[in-house]
């Protein structure tokens, strides 16, 4: 019996490791997409789009392991909450990867100077950096079972640090001259839904 419990604990630990790795992959995708936007790096943007399949594969592997644990071990109490949380988190992290890929796709059709033209490139990058920090903190809080850090992350998200400050500033610069020909609509697509949706995912699993 002790050996069964030991094996079970090892599977739960592996689940944490896989989630942390997937969170890291999503974080790297966000960072790379923002770097591609900052530097107008087409090749890097393409690599972000290509690597999205790795995040999808991680999602499938974690879901499979969670279902195996539920069927074989029938976890209860804290173990059941852990597996259920992992199933919810993996969906949100996969969405973050998708949105990073969406930003990279837009970079392929939008030059960095276009964002400069509407005066929002630095604001977009700041917003993206804030999102990246939130994702990293939330994943770390889950893996380390840090309830205080998780509560703080959730509070920051609920306060709308991104949507109410950065996004309002971006919309002001983008929407005001929207009737004029130019890149405004493409720039707006970077901010909403991609960065906005990433914030929503982060709030969900924080």
Q: In a nutshell, what does this entry contain?
A:
The protein is 87% helix and 0% strand. With 206 residues, the chain is an all-alpha fold. The chain is elongated.
Helix content: over 70%
Number of strands: 0
Reported for the largest beta sheet, the result is: none
Q: What is the gyration radius calculated from CA atoms?
A: 19 Å
Shape: elongated
Portion of residues in beta strands equals under 5%
The topology string of helices and strands comes to HHHHHHHH
Tally of DSSP helical segments: 8
Unreliable parts = 170-184
Secondary-structure content class: mainly alpha
Could you report the average pLDDT, rounded to the nearest whole number? 76
Distance between the termini: 35 Å
Secondary structure layout:
Elements: H1 2-39, H2 42-72, H3 77-109, H4 112-117, H5 121-143, H6 147-158, H7 162-175, H8 184-205
Helix pairs in contact: 1-2, 1-3, 1-5, 2-3, 3-8, 5-6, 5-7, 5-8, 6-8, 7-8
Characterise the protein shown here:
With 206 residues, this protein is mostly helical. The protein is 87% helix and 0% strand. The protein contains eight helices and no strands.
Name its key features.
mainly alpha; 87% helix; elongated
């Amino acid at each position: 019996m002790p050996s069964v419990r030991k094996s079970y604990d090892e599977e739960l630990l592996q689940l944490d490791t896989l989630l942390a790795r997937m969170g890291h992959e999503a974080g790297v995708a966000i960072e790379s997409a923002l770097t591609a936007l900052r530097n107008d790096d087409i090749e890097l943007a393409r690599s972000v789009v290509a690597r999205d399949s790795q995040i999808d594969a991680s999602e499938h592997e974690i879901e499979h392991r969670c279902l195996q644990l539920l069927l074989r071990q029938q976890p209860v109490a804290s173990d059941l909450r852990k597996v259920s949380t992992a199933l919810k988190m993996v969906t949100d992290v996969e969405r973050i990867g998708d949105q990073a890929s969406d930003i990279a796709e837009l970079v392929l059709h939008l030059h960095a100077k276009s964002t400069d033209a509407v005066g929002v490139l630095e604001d977009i990058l700041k917003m993206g950096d804030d999102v990246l920090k939130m994702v990293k903190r939330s994943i770390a809080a889950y893996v380390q079972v840090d309830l205080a850090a998780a509560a703080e992350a959730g509070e920051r998200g609920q306060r709308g640090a991104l949507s109410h400050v950065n996004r309002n500033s971006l919309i002001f610069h983008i929407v005001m001259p929207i009737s004029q020909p130019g890149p405004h609509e493409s720039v707006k697509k970077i901010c909403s839904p991609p960065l906005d949706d990433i914030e929503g995912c982060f709030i969900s699993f924080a």
